[in-house]
Structures are given as structure tokens and as C-alpha cells.
Amino acid sequence: MRAPNILCLGCVFLPLLLFQQISAQFPRECTTVEALRSGVCCPDLSPVSGPGTDRCGSSSGRGRCDAVTADSRPHSPQYSHDGRDDREVWPLRFFNRTCHCNGNFSGHNCGTCRPGWRGAACDQRILIVRRNLLDLSTEEKNHFVRALDMAKRTIHPLFVIATRRSEEILGPDGNTPQFENISIYNYFVWTHYYSVKKTFLGAGQESFGGVDFSHEGPAFLTWHRYHLLQLERDMQEMLQEPSFSLPYWNFATGRNVCDICTDDLMGSRSNFDATLISPNSVFSQWRVVCEFVQDYDTLGTLCNSYSEPTGKYDPAVRSLHNLAHLFLNGTGGQTHLSPNDPIFVLLHTFTDAVFDEWLRRYNAGQGFSIPEIITIAVVAALLLVAVIFVGASYLIRARSKMDEANQPLLSDQYRHYAEEYERIQNPNQSVV
Ligand SMILES: *[C@@H]1O[C@H](CO)[C@@H](O)[C@H](O)[C@H]1NC(C)=O
Ligand SMILES: *[C@@H]1O[C@H](CO)[C@@H](O)[C@H](O)[C@H]1NC(C)=O
Ligand SMILES: *[C@@H]1O[C@H](CO)[C@@H](O)[C@H](O)[C@H]1NC(C)=O
Ligand SMILES: *[C@@H]1O[C@H](CO)[C@@H](O)[C@H](O)[C@H]1NC(C)=O
């Protein structure tokens, strides 16, 4: 039994707000010594007369090779290691010229369409609907599970992963680019790992983990929206099915039961060991990637999929068995590892659906109506009076406080979350 789907979320999807040109990570074509030395990542789309004649689809007007304009605003005080991390002013540490696609064209070589568009000229609308996983037919459920498993096994056709930081990207001899192939699903895990990894400050120094670039901050929702869109797009290409969508899991409907933890969906518990996932689920065969984060942080390497920097290999540890049901076991998820569990996808599509609902409900990005403007003006005027009235006394008290920036905005809520955090041994492990 499950409650009806009261929240009609996910009925939504494209077009997306807040979505801009994807700056994908390392397109395979741009991982050559020449591309890295020149800083140019502008692959040919369909060259007719030799290499370099159709960079970014320029011959058909899809795009052009242009200088990268990265966000140059200063970092906030929490991040005091300017210039130490490859992710700053992305992707300038690697490339300073990339494809800029016109109109509805998109992709690292302008060969695809922006989300929401399809067709050779990217001029046909396509609506992709994310649905509640439990509302899918048996055939649709099987299709989704098989597609995830296929993504876990299929080498990503376009992107590879860097296994070293920019300083060492050309290898010890300066001539051997340090990249590896990765499967479509593992690329999804890797991208997440890359966004949360610590900043390496040098051998023997502790890496800086004080800022998580994709969690616990305003980027959380939009970054994960991008992250899901990337997986969805990759799976559409893999399946040759432009309308393929990731479903979502409304985890409230099952109450205290994981209603998607069945072998036809995300896997049930093993009958032999309650901490393991059932061997009848395909996911019991999945291996975990990006597991040795501490090693990467001390050695200054990057997660290179399965192989471990120190050379140890333990197949049992790397299977998903150990991570199964991690989300359902309190807050044990570890940020850098969490997407290894495919339930991550469904939790985040649901979060994204709630985000979408919020955007729609408050007309975000579409300005305000006249009654709203009047209401806002009146409320603002009243607030201003109130603020001036009590401001002086607070000012005096505020001066005595050590660090105003760290004071909670909503004290009740903050206290609640702080208590939750204290119960967790390692608070870093609570965010997925
Ligand atoms: C772009 O990067 C290349 C390679 O690092 C460098 O030689 C070149 O000067 C850079 N160009 C600009 C405009 O920064
Ligand atoms: C996308 O294509 C449609 C149909 O041709 C067009 O109306 C729209 O302006 C295009 N969008 C952009 C951003 O060029
Ligand atoms: C990576 O995959 C591509 C395409 O499947 C293949 O051509 C290439 O040889 C692979 N590279 C490595 C290092 O395995
Ligand atoms: C989480 O799992 C551990 C062992 O795997 C178990 O001891 C613990 O009770 C579980 N916690 C919850 C909240 O289920």
C-alpha cells in the first residue's frame, strides 16, 4: 500500500530555468598534448577539408571558438587559498578557448541541442517529463533499472576523467596526458566527487576542506540540477531515446518503509545479511568508485575510478554491498561517495522536483506582478521602520559577538539542525 501521489511534482521539467551553456569537463578530443599546451578545446564537428575546418560547427553556423570568460569575482572569506585549486575560474587552468554555441545549439563541439530542444537544427521543442518511480509500469521500471545498469557498464563516449591536477596533467615526462576512460554512471559519481573534493595545498600539508563547492550553500540546488541533467542527457544518448527521463522517488509516501527497495527497483535487503543488498538485484554487482578520498587528498591525485593509489585491492569492499541502504540508515551517507548508490539519483530528482515546484510557485526569475510589488513595498516599509527601531540596541549587542557572519539567521531552525549534526560522528557525512 502506498499513499497517492499528492504532490504533483515532476510533472514539470523542461524548459529549465537558470540553465546555461554546459561547460563539460574533459572532452576526449581535448586531452591531447597539443590541446592542453595551446589551451584550446574547440573540436571539429564535421570537418570537410581537414582538421580545424569545422571547429565548434562553425561551418554551419552552430558556434565558434572563443575566449573563455570565467567568473572573476573575488572569493568569499571562507576560501582563502586563491590560485591553489583547479576548480577556480573553471576551466581556465586547462583551457582558455572553448566552443561558444549559438541559439539552441549546445555541447562541447556545439553538436547537440540545449535541453528542451531537438532536431538537426535544434528548433523542435521536446518536453521531458520526470515521473514518480512507483507510477511507472512494470516494463518502464525494468527499462529504468536496465538503463542504469547499462550506464554503469558503458564507457562514456565523450568525456574522460583527469587523474592528476593541472600541474601534473601532462604526466612525469610532460608528454603523457593523465586521463582515463570512465563509464557513464561512474562519470556521474566522479563529477560529484570532483565538486566536493578538498583543495590540495601541497605534500605534507593538510588539504583544505573548509568549503564544499556544491553542498551547504546556495549552489546546492542548481549544481545538482546540472548534475542530473548531465546524467539524463548521457543516458538519452546511450539509449538513443531523446525522451528518456530519470524518475523521482517521493520518499514520504512509504513512511518508515523504503517502498522502492524491492528487487525489481533499487534492491531489497539480502535474506542472509540485513546489511547487504539482495543478490537478486543488479545493483548488488555494482562496484564503488572514488572511495579512497583520504589517499587522493594526501597524494594530490584525483579519483581514478577503481584503481587505488596505494595499490591495495579488495573486491569485497568495492562492491555496492557495503553501501546499500546507506541512505536509509540514518545520515550515514558520505558526500564524496553518495552517488555510488543509485538511490542518490532518485533522491535528487525529487529534491529537484521540489525546487521546481518552488520556482513555479514563486514565479522565480519572472519578476513580480503589480499586487506583489505593492505588497512587497508595504512590507518592506514596515520592516524598515521596525529595523530602525530595534536596530540600535542590536548593534550594541552585535559588537560583543565574536563572529557575526557565523550567527544563524533562523535561530530555531539552526539549533534543530545543529543538534542533528552533533549526533553524527562526522558531520561531513550527512550531506548527499
Ligand atoms: C591561453 O593558454 C595558453 C596555454 O596555457 C597560453 O599560452 C596563452 O597565452 C593563453 N592565452 C590567453 C589569452 O590567456
Ligand atoms: C530555439 O529555437 C526556436 C525555434 O526555432 C526559436 O524560436 C528560439 O528563439 C531558439 N532559442 C534560442 C535561444 O535561440
Ligand atoms: C578509451 O575509450 C576510447 C573509446 O571507447 C578508446 O578508443 C580508447 O582506446 C580508450 N582509452 C583507454 C586508455 O582505454
Ligand atoms: C545502521 O546500520 C548499522 C549497521 O549496519 C546498524 O547498527 C544501525 O542500527 C543502523 N541504523 C539505523 C538508523 O537503521
TrEMBL record:
It catalyses: 2 5,6-dihydroxyindole-2-carboxylate + O2 = 2 indole-5,6-quinone-2-carboxylate + 2 H2O. Residues 1-24 form the signal peptide. One of its GO terms (biological process) is melanin biosynthetic process. Pathway: Pigment biosynthesis; melanin biosynthesis. The keyword Zinc applies. PROSITE patterns: TYROSINASE_1, TYROSINASE_2. Keywords: Copper, Disulfide bond, Glycoprotein, Melanin biosynthesis, Membrane, Metal-binding, Monooxygenase, Oxidoreductase, Signal, Transmembrane, Transmembrane helix, Zinc. It is found in: Melanosome membrane. InterPro entries: Di-copper_centre_dom_sf, Tyrosinase/Hemocyanin, Tyrosinase_Cu-bd. GO terms for molecular function: metal ion binding; monooxygenase activity. Its cofactor is Zn(2+); Cu(2+). It is a single-pass type I membrane protein. GO terms for cellular component: melanosome membrane. Residues 215-232, 341-352 form the Tyrosinase copper-binding domain. The chain crosses the membrane at residues 373-396. Belongs to the tyrosinase family. This is 5,6-dihydroxyindole-2-carboxylic acid oxidase.
